[in-house]
Design brief:
Length: 64
């Protein structure tokens, strides 16, 4: 699913939206992963566009 279209559909339905970085931060908070930064960089290396600023903000939010 296109992220933009998915976000728009969720908004129209009044659903909460969480992006990839938010899911990864939550995974760290639940001790499912050890590093937000490392996982987001791996995701980006596989072609998913994530900015340096987003990765930094997510890592900071996760206490890294």
């Amino acid at each position: 699913m296109d992220d933009r279209l998915g976000r728009e559909a969720a908004r129209r339905l009044g659903l909460a939206r969480t992006g990839t970085a938010g899911v990864v931060v939550q995974a760290k908070q639940e001790n499912l992963i050890t590093s937000v930064r490392e996982l987001l960089e791996q995701i980006r290396d596989r072609g998913y566009w994530l900015s340096d600023e987003l990765i930094e903000a997510a890592a900071k939010l996760a206490g890294e």
